[in-house]
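[STRUCTURE TOKENS]
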Amino acid sequence: MLTESAIEGYKLHTEQVISHARYRLGETWHDAQISRRERMADGRVAIYFPIIPQAQEEVTITGVQLYSKDGKLWAEKEEDIKVKSVQEGVLYRFTFDLHEEEYEEGQDNV
């Protein structure tokens, strides 16, 4: 079993390794800067970044990604978030719940 110190090390690494985010409008990817990293009350790691499309018409955010400092894709998610005008934006949050669970034979491994 991992110790609490090891789990804390994974959380710290996650907080420190993420360098930037990207979001997709239609088929085009745009860069976004990380605005905040925090440890939530329940122990999850949260990474926040603003998405502020510079479009006059309604646009749809169709995907989000996080990248590590060495430029590797760290996390991604498909989305369907509508943004109605240039004055509207989204503060997006990725959360990571890092913990260990024991696996027992015959148990669903999901």
Notes: The chain has a mean pLDDT of 90.
